[in-house]
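Here is my example:
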Amino acid sequence: MTISNEAKVGALTIVAIGLFFFGFNYLKGKNIFTASNSFYIEYKEVGGLTTGAMVHINGFQVGSVTDIYIKPNTNNHLEVEIILNRGIEIPPDAIANIYSPDPLSGKAIRLLFDKQCNGSSIPCAQSGASIKGTSTGLVASMTGDLSPHIEKAKAMYQNIVDTVKSKLGGNGAGKGKELMADVETSMADLQSTLKNLNSATAKLDILLGKSTSQLDQILNNMNSITGNLKNNNQKITNILNNAESFTGDLKNLNLQKTLDGANGAIAGLDGTMKNANGAVAELQALLKKASEGDGTIAKLLEDENLYVNINNAVRDLDFLLKDFRLNPKRYVNVSVIGRKPKPYTGVADDPEGVQK
């Protein structure tokens, strides 16, 4: 059986679309081959929570965040969609709390509830239901709420005070009374300190909650920088080795000798420039003397009559040479018996005219 090319292309296209659909949902945290339950949580703000974030129960991942969007008609509140793995059931009163598992990781959601649902006495939330959402800042995520610890400390120190009072007999007298006053003062100071600590951590929690996205970006940038350094470790090592080799070569070079030679060359060039300056000065003096003096050169430069006479002499010499070339027998006369000389023809443009 022969399969046509069109059928092959169609089958390949269907497979490609299926792989794309599976990969897209996988990146969003959905597994299309596993049944799961979806739940919706409304938040006023999510503090940098992103799709794909993990959902935990007691630190164990049981699902992921699949979508985050602005819920209409809720004053820009956000709705987060999560899916839980097959077999994970939660009661309707479960709380989805956004928290930071550790300082270096992003936000995640933990599901908080007191009792496990069983479907009979405690019903389970149905897929598609909405559950309550809260958020916890970075400090509170790591330290928890200090209020219960403060209450425990107050109860403990109250027991101590009651015990001391009972041992001293009421409020006591003398040193016992002073001791009770000191204990009560210390207790009040401790309560004030614990309250201040609780207030400070709450403010720090709010501050870090607002800056969570910036902190996440800073940590991501740090991870990117360290990753680049790790990936380019060999290149950095080569650069350092080249720098070490270059500095070693500079150390081995006889730089002092080279500098001495350069200084000598500069000194020679300086002497040459001085000689050139002297020659130029002498030439300037010669030209000045020629232009201002009474010698031959000065007359050649200044006397117009001398120029005219020289020009006329050169012209006459030129006519003489032309006449000698045209009429040589006028200057060298060789007589032959019975032969008449040729008539003389003067030179054209001769100022003396034609001579016979």
In short: The chain has a mean pLDDT of 77. The chain is about 55% helix and 15% strand. The first helix runs from residue 5 to 27.
